[in-house]
Write a structure and sequence with these properties.
- This protein is of the alpha/beta class and about 170 residues long.
- Helix content is about 40%, strand content about 15%.
- It contains 8 helices and 7 strands, in the order E-E-E-H-E-H-E-H-H-H-E-H-H-E-H.
- It has a 5-stranded parallel beta sheet, with helices on both faces.
Length: about 170
């Protein structure tokens, strides 16, 4: 999925939201769809991971919660989106292609490498930096996260961040 022009000429941004709290997903979906964004949601990070690993999962923006149940964090999803984790070999791939995937080689930045990632957290952002410093330092070093946003975030602030990140000079 990539951005497309809407009938009114505005860019239609495709957004994937991942959060284990259904109320958060519903609220974000309603607000963002009312602004003309195309939104898909997952309340299960493992299902979102599998979906994002598929070749036809293309989004302009992924908004993901940082801390979710299980072994998949928002940072892990961000790494997959940005191409630092490679999916496994799929049916129809050559052994060479599957071998690159299994070795975890970084895919080309192509369509998916341009996807922006917002990490949502209910943690105080300063505390989050101290608690998870190694993981967050790595994401900063490699440019994996485009924004770290508080949860909850006022609707107007979220929309302003999206608009800032997708203005013609940034996209």
């Amino acid at each position: 999925m990539t951005a497309s022009a809407a009938s009114d000429g505005r860019i239609r941004i495709r957004i994937l939201i991942v959060d284990d709290e259904p109320d958060i997903l519903l609220g974000l979906r309603v607000v963002l769809e009312s602004q003309g964004y195309c939104v898909k949601t997952f309340d299960n990070p493992a299902e979102a991971f599998v979906h994002l690993a598929s070749e036809d999962a293309h989004y302009d923006l992924v908004i993901t919660d940082y801390k979710m149940p299980g072994n998949i964090s928002g940072v892990l999803l961000a790494r997959l989106v940005k191409g630092f984790i490679r999916r496994t070999k799929t049916k129809g791939e050559t052994d060479e292609e599957g071998g690159r995937a299994a070795r975890g080689e970084r895919r080309s930045r192509g369509k998916r490498g341009n996807t922006k990632v917002f990490l949502m957290t209910a943690f105080d952002i300063t505390s989050l930096s101290q608690l998870y410093e190694p993981e967050l330092n790595e994401t900063a070093k490699w440019g994996i996260l485009d924004e770290i946003i508080p949860k909850p975030i006022p609707n107007d602030k979220l929309i302003a961040l999206i608009e800032k990140n997708f203005s013609s000079s940034n996209h």
